[in-house]
C-alpha cells in the first residue's frame, strides 16, 4: 500500500469529519497528519470560556468528529485503529489514528455515512407521537456500538434533568460574558464558517415545548411547522452516559453521541442536544448518576421526537475549510 494512498484516505476522512456537530458550532478540533498517522487534538482556543468552562463540550465535539472520521474511513474501505490519549502534552493527542485495508462497510455504517451530510440539529416542535421502545433500543444499540450508553429519562429523572436545564440556563444567562458569547456565536461574519446561523434558530428567543425548555438563543428565522401549533409536543429525553468524567471518557461519550445522532437521522427523528445541565458544577451535581446507573455519569441530554409532516428541511450550518483544521507534515 503506497503511503500516498494512506495519506489521501486520511485527508479525505478529515474532510468528512468536519461535518460533526459541536457546541455553538465552534468546531473545536485540530488534526495533524504525519508519517501516515493522524492525530486529533482539542483546539482549546475555540472553547466557550463562559458556557463550557471545563471544556467538556470541546471533548464531546472532538469525539463526534473522531466517530465521523472512522465511519468515513470504513466506507472508503479502511479499518481505523484508534489509540485514545489524554491530550495533556503534544506526545499524547486525544486520538492517534492509523489505518489498514478493511472489509466492505456494513449497511448501518453506510447509512451513518449518508446521514452525516443530512443530519441537522432540530430546535422545532415535534409531533405528538412518542418514539417507541424499539426506536429507543435502536438508538441505545448505536451508542453501544460506539462504546457508550444511552438511557431514556422518564418520571422523576426526566423532571430533574429538565429542572436542571432550566436552572442552568437561567444561571448562565445572568452572566454577562455568557450573553456576549452567545451573541458572538450566533452573529458570525460569513467568512468565519462557524457559529449557529439564524436559519437554525427558532423565531422566538426562548422556546418551551411542554415541560422542555431548550437553550435560550437570540431569535432566528427557522420556520415553525404550522401543523405543530395545536399539537402536543411529545419529545422524549435521552441521556448519554460516560464511564467517568475524565478526558478519554468524554471523547468516547462524544463518539457515542455521534452514533446516536446519525442513527436518529437514518430513522427520521428530530434531535436537539442540550448540554446546559452539565455545564455548571451545581446543576451537574443534581443530575450526577441520575437514571444511568451507579457506575456511569450522564454527560449530555437529547430531546428527541418525530418531525411534523410539514416541517421543511433545515439548511446546513457552515463548516471551516479543511486547511483550517488539518496540518500536514511533509
Ligand atoms: C457537545 C454539544 C453540545 C450542544 N449543546 C447544545 C445546546 O445546549 N443547545 C442547542 O440548541 N444545541 C446544542 N448543540 C448543537 C450545536 O449547536 C450544533 O451541533 C451546531 O450548531 C452545528 O449544527 P448542526 O448540528 O445542525 O450541524 C450541541 C452540540 C454538541 C456536539
Protein described:
- The protein is of the alpha+beta class and 330 residues long.
- 37% of the residues lie in helices and 19% in strands.
- It has nine helices and eleven strands.
- Helix 1 (3-17) packs across helix 2 (56-75).
- It is globular and about 60 Å long.
- Bound molecules: flavin mononucleotide.
- Flavin mononucleotide binds next to helix 2 and strand 9.
- The site of flavin mononucleotide has 23 residues, from helix 2 and strand 9.
Topology:
Elements: H1 3-17, E1 29-34, E2 37-42, H2 56-75, E3 78-84, E4 95-101, H3 107-118, H4 133-145, E5 149-153, H5 155-173, H6 176-186, E6 207-209, E7 212-214, E8 236-242, H7 247-267, E9 269-274, H8 281-287, E10 297-306, H9 322-325, E11 326-328
Parallel strand pairs: 1-11
Antiparallel strand pairs: 1-2, 2-4, 3-4, 5-8, 6-7, 8-10, 9-10
The chain binds flavin mononucleotide (FMN).
Kindly report how far apart the N and C termini lie.
18 Å
**Radius of gyration, Cα only, in angstroms?**
19 Å
Question: What would CATH call the architecture of the largest domain?
Answer: 3-Layer(aba) Sandwich
**Unreliable runs:** none
Order of helices and strands: HEEHEEHHEHHEEEHEHEHE
Number of helices: 9
Helix content: 25-40%
Strand residue percentage: 15-25%
CATH class of the largest domain: Alpha Beta
The CATH homology group name of the largest domain: NADH Oxidase
Largest sheet: 5 strands, mixed
What binds here, in terms of ligands, is: flavin mononucleotide
- Broad shape: globular
The number of strands is 11
Mean pLDDT: 94
CATH topology of the largest domain: NADH Oxidase
Number of domains: 2
Major sheet strand order:
3-4-2-1-11
The SS-based structural class is alpha+beta
Amino acid at each position: 500500500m503506497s503511503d500516498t494512498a494512506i495519506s489521501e484516505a486520511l485527508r479525505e476522512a478529515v474532510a468528512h469529519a468536519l461535518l460533526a456537530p459541536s457546541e455553538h458550532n465552534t468546531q473545536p478540533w485540530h488534526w495533524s497528519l504525519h508519517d501516515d498517522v493522524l492525530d486529533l487534538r482539542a483546539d482549546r482556543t475555540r472553547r466557550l470560556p463562559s458556557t463550557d468552562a471545563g471544556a467538556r463540550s470541546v471533548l464531546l465535539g472532538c469525539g463526534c468528529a473522531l466517530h465521523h472520521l472512522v465511519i468515513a474511513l470504513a466506507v472508503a474501505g479502511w479499518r481505523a485503529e484508534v489509540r485514545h490519549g489524554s491530550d495533556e502534552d503534544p506526545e499524547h493527542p486525544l486520538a492517534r489514528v492509523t489505518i489498514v485495508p478493511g472489509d466492505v462497510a456494513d449497511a448501518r455504517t453506510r447509512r451513518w455515512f449518508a446521514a452525516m451530510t443530512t443530519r441537522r440539529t432540530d430546535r422545532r416542535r415535534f409531533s405528538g407521537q412518542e418514539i417507541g421502545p424499539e426506536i429507543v433500543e435502536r438508538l441505545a444499540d448505536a451508542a453501544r456500538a460506539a462504546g457508550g450508553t444511552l438511557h431514556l429519562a422518564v418520571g422523576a429523572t426526566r423532571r430533574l434533568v429538565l429542572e436542571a436545564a432550566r436552572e442552568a440556563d437561567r444561571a448562565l444567562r445572568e452572566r454577562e460574558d455568557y450573553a456576549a458569547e452567545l451573541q458572538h456565536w450566533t452573529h458570525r461574519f460569513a467568512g468565519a464558517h462557524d457559529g449557529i446561523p439564524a436559519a437554525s434558530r427558532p423565531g422566538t428567543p426562548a422556546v418551551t415545548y411542554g415541560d422542555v425548555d431548550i437553550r435560550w438563543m437570540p431569535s432566528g428565522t427557522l420556520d415553525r411547522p404550522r401543523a405543530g401549533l395545536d399539537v402536543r409536543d411529545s419529545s422524549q429525553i435521552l441521556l448519554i452516559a460516560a464511564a467517568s468524567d475524565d478526558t478519554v471518557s468524554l471523547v468516547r461519550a462524544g463518539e457515542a453521541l455521534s452514533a446516536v445522532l446519525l442513527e436518529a437521522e437514518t430513522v427520521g427523528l428530530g434531535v436537539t442536544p442540550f448540554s446546559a445541565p452539565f455545564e455548571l458544577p451545581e446543576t451537574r451535581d443534581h443530575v450526577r448518576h441520575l437514571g444511568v446507573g451507579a457506575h456511569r455519569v450522564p454527560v449530555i441530554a437529547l430531546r428527541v421526537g418525530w418531525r411534523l409532516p410539514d416541517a421543511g428541511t433545515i439548511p446546513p450550518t457552515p463548516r471551516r475549510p479543511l486547511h483550517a483544521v488539518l496540518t500536514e507534515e511533509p
